[in-house]
Amino acid sequence: MSVTAIDPTRSVSDRLEATGTSNALELRGVSKYFGALAALQDITLSVRPGERRAVLGSNGAGKTTLFNCITGDFLPTHGSVRFFGEDVTEFAAHERIRRGLRRTYQISLLFTGLSVLDNIYLACCGVSRNRFSFLRPRRNDALMATAEDLVRVVHLEDIKNTKVSALAYGQQRQLEIAMALSGAPRFILFDEPAAGLSPTERSELIEILTGLPGHMGYIIIEHDMDVALRVSEQVSMMHNGRIFKEGKPAEIEEDPEVQALYLGGGHD
């Protein structure tokens, strides 16, 4: 399958106008069944370029299945997925990655025997034209320079030569974000990046996410509502495989139905 060429001289808005859409991500009537179990039911969702959105809901609401359908880990049973105007519903995960979609996972997927910098460098190689090269990077290697930049973005420059196996859990989560940022993605899906983090590490995570370039949109799944509401502009609430409520963070936080379902009747 060929990759659609992207003209770097055209702005995001120009490219979207050419496709007849104004959205980075569009889901229309997406459902996913596992036998008789409906994990997702008729999900319709639109996210603008550069928008930061949180998807909240209790365990089993369908959040990770939603991500899997967006990234191509699962193909939807019904419905369509469009990425910057292109129908990617039937595309494999690697084809969506080549078009600028990235994600992190709930469980860390890292090369624990390699250094922080090596992990990021390999992620950069994986989305480059020379991803099958076995040559050692030269001193002026452009991908290594990019990896060095990403180390700084996620605040790991002081431990860039440390093996991943020696990192604290929160540092591993920061490394995953750096790897997701490789190749200048257009959109990222963050799956519970604050899970297991200390209060200090959560504050650093918020700083990293809010410091990302304005054109880079993302969706974050997060159980920590304090984190989710601080790093998002829009919120979608899920329950039993459906989206039942959408709004601004303040609206969602104050909504009685949300408090009753998700917060146990209140939230300070």
From TrEMBL:
<dbReference type="InterPro" id="IPR027417">
    <property type="entry name" value="P-loop_NTPase"/>
</dbReference>
<dbReference type="GO" id="GO:0005524">
    <property type="term" value="F:ATP binding"/>
</dbReference>
<keyword id="KW-0547">Nucleotide-binding</keyword>
<protein>
    <submittedName>
        <fullName>ABC transporter ATP-binding protein</fullName>
    </submittedName>
</protein>
<dbReference type="InterPro" id="IPR003439">
    <property type="entry name" value="ABC_transporter-like_ATP-bd"/>
</dbReference>
<dbReference type="InterPro" id="IPR051120">
    <property type="entry name" value="ABC_AA/LPS_Transport"/>
</dbReference>
<feature type="domain" description="ABC transporter">
    <location>
        <begin position="25"/>
        <end position="265"/>
    </location>
</feature>
<keyword id="KW-0067">ATP-binding</keyword>
<keyword id="KW-0813">Transport</keyword>
<dbReference type="Pfam" id="PF00005">
    <property type="entry name" value="ABC_tran"/>
</dbReference>
